[in-house]
Design brief:
The chain has helices at residues 19-29, 48-55, 66-71, 73-79, 91-99, 105-112, 125-129, 131-143, 169-180, 185-190, 237-248, 276-286, 329-334, 354-365, 404-422; strands at 5-11, 32-38, 59-60, 83-89, 116-121, 146-147, 151-154, 161-165, 212-217, 222-225, 228-230, 252-257, 269-272, 291-294, 301-303, 323-325, 343-350, 369-374, 385-386, 388-392, 395-398, 402-403. With 425 residues, the protein is of the alpha/beta class. Bound molecules: cytidine-5'-monophosphate. Residues 216, 276, 294-296, 298, 300, 326, 328-330, 346-348, 361 line the site of cytidine-5'-monophosphate (C5P).
């Protein structure tokens, strides 16, 4: 290959396979050559001809093609590249990788490679949340596989939505560039480095190096009909600042964010959701994590029956809006019997009796620490400063009014110490 950087792109069998055509084009624009393997299932979605036309190289499809083996062979194919990228990484491909199966060209190349592997999972949300997929992803975590996505949103299947959409070509491209940039820890965090940071030369060891931190941020939107929703006021500034501070401290960070007007923090894998139920699903999908910080202003209720068409003002009775309670994400995670993060942190925005209410909330939710913020004064909601009290079973630590970025940095340092102090020596 003529370009100085090259990837081996393995295109799996999913509707998102078409996005790989755009990815190949974007890679070329960036001077990154792609050599492609198209799985049998992938061929149902894109053709070898379209792939090879865009890549400017033949597209490999068959493990037992004598010509291919004579030409290059699957071992050389998997090693004469800088990075292997699997997109879409289907549940089937992930399962094969996790178990070391090698029964076609794609899985054989993945097993034979001595290069790093980046996967862009894509599947139905239920498949993504299935215990088997969770197990397989945990195995890939141990194996040091890099991950980008999946995102939350509508599925190709009618009426289905949730976490499982493949990351967009621009996101995958950014993840590839970061992986190709080498050993720097920030790029690995940025694309969701699942494994431990490589020992020696693995980059600046921050206080949270090698740990996974999960943060929720922003409001949730609970649909009433296609144009209206219920929400809390929340800018997401504090939650996003915490995610950025955890990344700066060396953690791999997953930020599950409701709709906000903020850019995704640098070096953080951000999953965008709308409703509380989507937020819970995204949080559960992102586990395991050592530290989970729930800063989102989740709507307590949603309407019992969302209207599928816009509700009309017809001049007569007001429409009845029956509400039902949303899942409490913080309490659900804090009370998990298995896979509970070591530290579960909640927020409590109060206008009066800030500490007393926070102490009650600590017990009710089953978390380890509540960051109680006094929203009685003006300007906290959407503003840049925050006055917080850290409430644990052991007592209360009150901080002066600080910029939200400063609260985030101090909180991350505090949690790192707390987590380290709880681990056996
Ligand atoms: O119950 P309350 O809304 O006062 O609790 C606030 C804390 O609980 C915050 O940490 C918030 O992110 C979390 N929470 C949640 N899911 C809900 C409601 C609140 O995670 N449905």
């Amino acid at each position: 290959m003529s370009a100085s950087r090259s990837i081996l792109l393995i295109i799996g069998g999913g509707i998102a396979a078409y996005k790989c055509l755009e990815l190949i084009r974007r890679l070329k624009d960036r001077g990154i050559a792609s050599r492609c393997i198209l799985t049998k299932a992938g061929e149902a979605f894109v053709t070898p001809l379209s792939v090879s036309s865009l890549a400017g190289e033949r597209c490999f499809t068959d493990l037992f093609s004598l010509t291919d083996e004579a030409d290059i062979g699957h071992i050389a194919l998997s090693r004469s590249t800088d990075l292997l990228v699997v997109a879409p990484a289907t549940a089937d491909l992930i399962a094969k990788m996790a178990n070391g199966l090698a029964n076609d060209l794609a899985s054989t190349a993945l097993l034979a490679t001595d290069k790093r592997v980046l996967i862009a999972p894509a599947m139905n949300p239920r498949m993504w949340q299935h215990p088997a997929t969770r197990r397989n992803m945990a195995q890939l975590e141990k194996d040091g596989v890099l991950v980008v996505g999946p995102n939350s949103g509508a599925m190709a299947e009618r009426g289905e939505s949730g976490v499982g959409r493949m990351a967009e070509p621009a996101e995958i491209l950014a993840a590839i560039e970061r992986a190709l940039a080498g050993e720097a820890p920030a790029p690995q965090r940025a694309i969701g480095f699942l494994g431990r940071l490589p020992g020696g030369g693995g980059g600046a060891p921050g206080v949270l190096a090698g740990q996974h931190v999960l943060v929720t941020s922003g409001p949730t939107h609970e649909p009433i009909d296609p144009v209206r929703y219920i929400a809390n006021r929340s800018s997401g500034k504090q939650g996003h600042a915490i995610a950025a501070a955890a990344a700066a401290a060396g953690a791999r960070v997953t930020l599950v964010s409701g709709p906000v007007a903020l850019p995704d923090p640098e070096g953080v894998e951000t999953v965008h959701v709308e409703s509380a139920r989507e937020m819970l699903a995204a949080v559960e999908a992102a586990l395991p994590a050592q530290i989970a910080i729930f800063a989102a202003a989740v709507a307590d209720w949603r309407v019992a029956a969302e209207a599928t068409e816009k509700m009309k003002k017809d001049g007569s009775d007001l429409p009845p809006l029956a509400l039902i309670e949303n899942p409490d994400i913080l309490a659900t995670i804090a009370r998990r019997a298995a896979g509970r993060p070591e530290l579960v942190v909640g927020f409590a925005a109060e206008t009066e009796n800030v500490v007393t209410y926070a102490q009650a909330k600590l017990a009710r939710k089953g978390c380890d620490l509540i960051v109680a913020n006094d929203v009685g004064g003006t300007g906290v909601m959407g503003g840049d400063a925050n006055t917080v009290h850290l409430v644990t079973q052991d007592g209360v630590e009150s901080w002066p009014t600080l910029a939200k970025g400063e609260v985030a940095t101090r909180l991350v340092a505090h949690l790192a110490r707390l987590a380290a102090g709880r681990r056996p020596a």
